[in-house]
Amino acid sequence: MIEATLCFPRRDVDGTEEVLLIEKRRGLGEGWYNGPGGKLEAGETPRECAVRETREEVGLEIDPADLEKAAELDFRLDGERHTLCHVFRTRTFAGEPRPSPEARPEWVAVEAVPYDRMWEDDRLWLPAVLAGETVAGEFRFVGGEPLDEADFADHALERGVSFADER
Ligand SMILES: Nc1[nH]c(=O)nc2c1ncn2[C@H]1C[C@H](O)[C@@H](COP(=O)(O)OP(=O)(O)OP(=O)(O)O)O1
Questions:
Q1: Which atom of ligand 1 is the closest one to the Cα of 57?
Q2: Are 68 and 91 spatial neighbours (Cβ–Cβ below 8 Å)?
Q3: What residues form DSSP beta bridges with 118?
Q4: Has residue 165 got a pLDDT over 80?
Q5: Predicted local distance difference test score (pLDDT) of residue 164
Q6: Domain segments of the chain: what residues?
Q7: Which UniProt keywords apply (predicted)?
Q8: Which of 36, 145, 156, 157 is most buried, judging by how many CB atoms fall within 10 Å of its CB?
Q9: Ligand 1 atom nearest to 37, measured from its CA
Q10: Shortest-distance atom of ligand 1 to CA 102
Q11: CA nearest neighbour of 1 among 64, 57, 75
Q12: Are 6 and 87 in contact (CB under 8 A)?
């Protein structure tokens, strides 16, 4: 099973709530919008991975302590656990987003998140994450690798979960 992260930086511009998304330029979900993120490296905690991936992909610096854990997503493919994704959000970061070979960053109004250009599961959990809730979800795909070409089948979502035991 792969362990991965997603990070959603937030800001308020003259009363409009925005979230930093990326258009992914390569890898899983290429061509779709998502948060910065990626796979854990050996010895890394999810929090450390989210900080590193956000730095590598869009150039923002985040103190790991400023990340708030928002979700745990269990992506299953053909009945097997495929990817466990840890989702974080933060309003505290340094720097200006810049593009990289992996990602083209874009500040988007929370009211205008392009769900039709994202993973099909995102519309089920991202609104809650952007509303400040905590969620745990299981999302089942069928049809074989790669995950981003499989068919989304069904899901279960729990709200108001506690991540107190986060490593
Ligand atoms: N169903 C899904 N919905 C979603 O929103 N994000 C998903 C997802 N399944 C995987 N992801 C995200 C989690 C993680 O941020 C990313 C993993 O993609 P990659 O394998 O391309 O990782 P990396 O960006 O680390 O790539 P490498 O640099 O090649 O390791 O995709």
A1: 24
A2: no
A3: 33
A4: no
A5: 83
A6: 2-159
A7: Cytoplasm, Hydrolase, Magnesium, Metal-binding, RNA-binding
A8: 36
A9: 15
A10: 24
A11: 75
A12: yes
- Tens digits of residue pLDDT in 11-44: 999 999 999 999 999 999 999 999 999 999 999 9
CATH topology of domain 2-159: Nucleoside Triphosphate Pyrophosphohydrolase (3.90.79)
Indicate the pLDDT class of residue 89, thresholds 50, 70 and 90: very high
If you measure from the C-alpha of residue 150 to the centroid of ligand 1, how many angstroms do you get, rounded to a whole number?
14
Q: What angle do CA 117, 49, 42 make, to 5 degrees?
A: 120
**Atom 20 of ligand 1: nearest residue by CA position:** 28
Q: How far is the CA of 86 from the centre of ligand 1 (A)?
A: 11
Whether residue 31 has its Cβ less than 6 Å from ligand 1:
no
The two three-digit tokens of residue 153, written as one number: 């089948």
pTM of the model: 0.97
DSSP 33: E
Q: Is 73 helix (H, G, I), strand (E, B) or coil?
A: strand
Atom of ligand 1 nearest to the CA of 26: 21
* Number of residues assigned to the chain: 167
| Residue 37 near ligand 1, beta carbon < 6 Å | yes
Nearest CA residue ID for atom 18, ligand 1: 28
Token duo for residue 122:
């995102």
